[in-house]
Amino acid sequence: MPTTQAPTRALLDRRYLLTGGPWRALFYLFSTLPFAIPVAIAAGVLALPYLAAMSSLSRGAAPDGPVLFLMIVSLALLLVLGPLVAVPLGVVERARLSLMDTRPLPSPHPPSPADLVSWLRTRYSEPATWRELLYALFLATVVPAAYAIAGFLIIIEVALLLGPFFVNGGSAFWTIGAFEVRTPAQAIPLFLAGVLMVPVFGYLAGLLATGQAFAARALLGDRTGLELHQVAQSRARLADAFDLERRRIERDLHDGAQHRLTSLTLQLGMARLDVAPDSPAAEPLTRAHDQAKDLMVVLRDLIYGIRPQALTDLGLPAALRELAGRSPLPVAVTVADGVPRPAEQTEGTAYFAASEALANIVKHAEATRADILLARAGETLILEIRDDGQGGADPTRGTGLTGLADRVAASGGRLLLSSPQDGPTLLRIELPLIPAPAPAASLPAAGRP
């Protein structure tokens, strides 16, 4: 999956013109035309009776009977046939949206019966269908008007750039506003102005594409929860103090409690060897030894949960694969190329977010599998956990997701959630990618060069 930024964030990037953003925006805009033009023509034909009525009203006369009849027919055709066009158009537009925004936008339509009558009854009763029709009208009205204005500006830009080549110092001349150009020398200032305006058109393309993508996401997603939304997060978390306390607890458990429990287990094992099997103390001593060994496993898992050794020694990808191997569900881990090892705090936050997400999937999602993706988008570390469960995760119904979002926010990141009813669920964690510091160079031993 490509890991580009959301369109608004990409447009605000200072390096926007040096990225592929303007070219993606241009491709998105030009690929709109094959869909917007037929929809605009159809909408224009349906709007003709209303234009005729407005013309009559402007002359002070009421619309006659045939015009009123055609107005009713046009409205009926829009309401009856419009959804049949808007629903497949919504499918195409949600797919095309990935050109500008890689955040998933699942279909807002739940599964419907296979027979045609039930499908039509279901689709015509869904608010999502009428929002898709509204988006089709947006393509037929707002998009052509915006593209026409942009096209007019492009024509002026082309005229500025080609002006010196179309004047020859004779009778031929052309004007731009108050400027009259008769010679190539007079066209040079306008040519330079056109050159300076070229970057502006890169941003203009990005602005148009971003606005259209925003409208598509707003109208073609599910307002009840299908669209990715940022979970409420608190920014008043003491991340450094938390990490310090976590290390202290881990050290105390590992160096203190675990060693003493290991010693106790060994002593109980030695005591069992010294006690005869038929002795009254043999059975209680065996039970105590077994309980001590079980407690060793519990304590080892507790220490592992604080910060697993694989995370410290091998890094986040290896720790995620180990986490997937310990899960009762089949979990596939994909690590994109070019992901450096992040700082310890970022690494720990990403790992524990994945661990908490998998635990929630096992407990609540009724899923059959899960997928973990670790990737990089610029200076952002992306962690996505997807499952095929029942969906419907809602941060307002409990503190689990909100607490997880707080933990992510403490590291300067954010948590995004897409969890429609009937699934799938996608949890996306975005963390600032601070590379881990390079290991300090060891000093040469005394007496060596």
From TrEMBL:
Residues 68-220 form the Putative sensor domain. Residues 245-311 form the Signal transduction histidine kinase subgroup 3 dimerisation and phosphoacceptor domain. InterPro entries: HATPase_C_sf, Put_sensor_dom, Sensor_HK_TwoCompSys, Sig_transdc_His_kin_sub3_dim/P. It catalyses: ATP + protein L-histidine = ADP + protein N-phospho-L-histidine. Its EC number is 2.7.13.3. The chain crosses the membrane at residues 25-48, 68-92, 133-166, 186-209. The keyword Chloroplast does not apply. GO terms for molecular function: kinase activity. It comes from the Bacteria. Keywords: ATP-binding, Kinase, Membrane, Nucleotide-binding, Phosphoprotein, Transferase, Transmembrane, Transmembrane helix, Two-component regulatory system. This is histidine kinase. It comes from Winogradskya humida. The lineage of its organism: Bacteria, Bacillati, Actinomycetota, Actinomycetes, Micromonosporales.
